[in-house]
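Batch 3, record 17
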Amino acid sequence: MEKFKVIFYPSNKNIGVDNGTTILSAAISAGVYINSVCGGDGVCGKCKIKLLKGQVATQPTGSITTKEIENSIYLACLTTIHSDLEIEIPASSALDLEKTNSRDLDISLKTFYSESDEIILPELKDSEKTILDAALTRKLYIELTPPNLDDKTSDLERLYRAITNITGISLIQTGLINIRLLGELLRSSDWKITITFIEKNINQIEIILVEPGDKSRENFGFCFDIGTTTLSGQLIDLNTKKVLSSRAQYNKQVSLGSDVISRIIYAQQPDGLEKLHLAVSEGINQIIQELTEAHKINLNDVTSIVCAGNTTMIHLLLRIDPRHIRKEPYIPTVNFLPLLKAAEVGIKINPHGVLYCVPGVASYLGGDVTAGVLSCGLHKQPKTSILIDIGTNGEVVLGNNEFLIGCAASAGPAFEGSGVNSGMRATKGAIQKVRINPKEFNVEFSTIGNILPQGICGSGYIDLLAEMLNCGLINKIGKINDLNSPRIRKNEFGNEFVVVFKKDGASETDIVISEIDIDNIKRAKAAIYSSVTTLLKHVNLNLTDVTKFYIAGGFGTYLDIPNAIKIGLLPDLPRDKFLFIGNSSLSGARQMILSNQARVDAKEIARKIAYLELSVESSYIDEYMAALFFPHTDLTKFPSFNS
Amino acid sequence: MEKFKVIFYPSNKNIGVDNGTTILSAAISAGVYINSVCGGDGVCGKCKIKLLKGQVATQPTGSITTKEIENSIYLACLTTIHSDLEIEIPASSALDLEKTNSRDLDISLKTFYSESDEIILPELKDSEKTILDAALTRKLYIELTPPNLDDKTSDLERLYRAITNITGISLIQTGLINIRLLGELLRSSDWKITITFIEKNINQIEIILVEPGDKSRENFGFCFDIGTTTLSGQLIDLNTKKVLSSRAQYNKQVSLGSDVISRIIYAQQPDGLEKLHLAVSEGINQIIQELTEAHKINLNDVTSIVCAGNTTMIHLLLRIDPRHIRKEPYIPTVNFLPLLKAAEVGIKINPHGVLYCVPGVASYLGGDVTAGVLSCGLHKQPKTSILIDIGTNGEVVLGNNEFLIGCAASAGPAFEGSGVNSGMRATKGAIQKVRINPKEFNVEFSTIGNILPQGICGSGYIDLLAEMLNCGLINKIGKINDLNSPRIRKNEFGNEFVVVFKKDGASETDIVISEIDIDNIKRAKAAIYSSVTTLLKHVNLNLTDVTKFYIAGGFGTYLDIPNAIKIGLLPDLPRDKFLFIGNSSLSGARQMILSNQARVDAKEIARKIAYLELSVESSYIDEYMAALFFPHTDLTKFPSFNS
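Prediction for the assembled complex:
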């Protein structure tokens, strides 16, 4: 097969590919990340590249104009390579992972993982510390009595006997690979060894590793939240139960599709599943490597990892075909995963290390939600509370220590900055707070990182809409009033409002909000609000029955609660009922790597949550339609707004 | 590295090898089997070859004469290759596996596996047949209810739920590989599938395989006895619980050492362990392939295998270094193996198939003995019995349903035809029965296969010695009397007796028995007899307390009991107390593949047998010395011989 060399600028990365390969596919192979929100279907128009040199073939699509093609602008996903090429990736298409990797996201991580967010574990008794310590993987140093002619117990049974003597546990297993090494290892270490073990069932353990000498203090693990957009990880000392370091970066799958549906579609392409799998496992490996290097920890001393993620993310991590998740009746292959070997899915820790995936509830209510419930403790409280997690997907869980019910709010990614004109993720340069002068409509704003504005993130949109309502710039259905201001102008589809003029920002265009944008946000907030009310109605409860309202997700960290109520995203409850809990998926995963009880609880939570399919819930559409106003058609539901 | 071509005659097999390779090693690689009793140490002198052409280098040794080297006769183990070679393997050195593979051993197998030897299982109730059938691997056909919007259980939990509904078992596991395939498999098979599962603990199963459609009737397994000399296997239909076919062949390790000690030594050579491991796993694979082909059974339908063998054989099968077995205090790495994947040790059945190794007791009391006890039921009987298994190693177990005690009798391989002048294994051409005319000392004999005699096997030696005692040819210490007969002549070390003159046999020399041979056999029989009496003494019992005396091993099949008592191999008990049980290791393994209860019992037996180390038992040496007579120094112990 003919091979062509493709060079990508400005990174200068190059790759040899077969004739007919798409530019998007070549870019992924070369490690050049291009936005591809729709998963390579030619729909989103985000993956535009400029051809500098060479022969390509492309397909017509509405996402690119004839004029662009005349100017050598192509969609990477629809354009195939037929000679050596030189290609430029415009800044607008680039997903520069290296730039945004950790530094930019560190800001939000600091907020996620404040001191108060560290989980507080009850002090362990000394007697418990040796063995009843319930981390996912535990180490135990053992000095064996060497054999003699009066005690000829075999090496393995001698080890088992010692473990039983120390722990009281008599059901012990291990694999052939450990048995093969045991004879020499015991003798060369003078019968002093450290075992690493996991608890399989009650009073049943499996030894996953045997090492010479005392290695009991070197036992580390990682917990991860695999978000559709962001991958967040923490390095944990499993002995001291301390978080040593945190890191977040884009989920590299972002370049293969912005949401779970486009990724499931992408997975159906040849090698699609494998690429998605590699994208996430490489990301995990990168974080593991970075943090262990920074702390001078040997990868072999990392013995376990816990991953929380939505159901599709977990399927992709494990290279399980997710196709049935998006086909009616929306069935995942698995919600409750067995404990796996990390190596089975390409995660590079100790080769005997294990991977625990947090159990999920349904196709659109995953382990990240289970972890969230565990983290906020909603399942233990006698009084009823609500958890909403607004990420790329929105999820809502309602309940108490007697019942749990949850649903997926098909909010869409508007609050993540997708599908809106000047939208961007909550990273550096994103407008996150807005005030509008009610007379001249001048806009004051602050950006993440305090640099020139590049666009607007979710919390910025909420502030913006609330302020526009305050100033009479928009009406209750979201139309921009025809007021006399240089900031208000007409476009093809209606009015738009200029938030930042090009000259005042870092964007190549004015930063604007259009009536179409407002409509998108309105639908997103209506979906979340009506999910809450539909759940309540389903169990015959009212908003007044809700004692706590937990808000999870990176989004929540910047959210202005009064403004979120003003636009009707959150219900009009006393402000002190709202609690930000940050990345509760990650906190829950961290509890699970540290505590056996947390893993037992997580299983129980996932089993207990009744999943409500909103699309077949008759009242949902009424609730949703009623919420398509700012804040709502029924203003009695928003008394503070009414007064 | 320079490569040389070596051709072996008469097989015409050839191989390319590196400069400096030993001829023995080249022969093994070429699939040419050469006797190498000492494991390639240049001691036994059994691996003589004739160099027809080419350059070699050799080392001096007492096992080969200068004259032989002048005649181009070399020891294969000590001679290295330095040019292209042509080599002839003399019949005396050849271990022609193809010839002896199955046909010759079929004779003994027929005797081992008579109709009465088939285990009789209680009839299963219909309700039990679907699931409570307790084969090691079981299949279950399941028709699942497809999901719908009201039943959105995931694929895996749907499967688990169905299994729980059918079996009542709720602890169910499976591996990632099965989960990955599940989604498509369930849908393409219209939700009709067959699972193969194993029971892990009580009420806990693991699914090892999921197949489309109804495959519940195609479930096969193999049981093996891995003897030091002979490998015997049976193909079992796990559904009908019938033995479909049996096969035995040499354990290919024979060419790397004749007994466990020489193999343990060989395992310390570079690649030695690997070669020993491959020799046995290839043998197993050969039998599996032959028998499945003969029965037109797909290898994928073979889901489990049970192996019984002595502790060293099991270590070598699993590629576990056995070195500590022969070093004081003689500790094996493992007696109780976990259930393994057959593929982990290179056994070619279904890639998900499992391997169960029968648990052993100690370094020199292995799973073959556990299987033997299980097979004869000694552990269940209220009255005390004895089991002796005389193979390349001899083992004795004494006990009843309250206690079990066992020991290894260091009998040596004399009864297997090793270490004795005209000795041979119990295959075609071996003298197995002998009568001597008391006047002229003419010898009448019968051979296995009724062909011209080539040598004498164990049962032949027992007959021969008993007859020589009867005729006054030997005295009670085993010296051959100086009688006037052409059959009695002097050699370097004393007298010898000609059993068959060269002209009457198929051997290149006279078939003789020397005083050294008699001494070897005397020591072997004394070791076995004194093991029995030492065990009895240890628990304060007498021979009269023994109600049954089980004799296991291929050897036992031809044994003449009165003659064995006459020479003092067996104690002088009423003849009806002796029971031949054939290859009880294989019968026990077969029970274990068919019955969960048998596996539970085997574990219990292995735990229960107290191992008596004869070398540190003070009374043993006295017992042994007293038995170094025909039949014994204390004739009151042999009243029938006395009368």
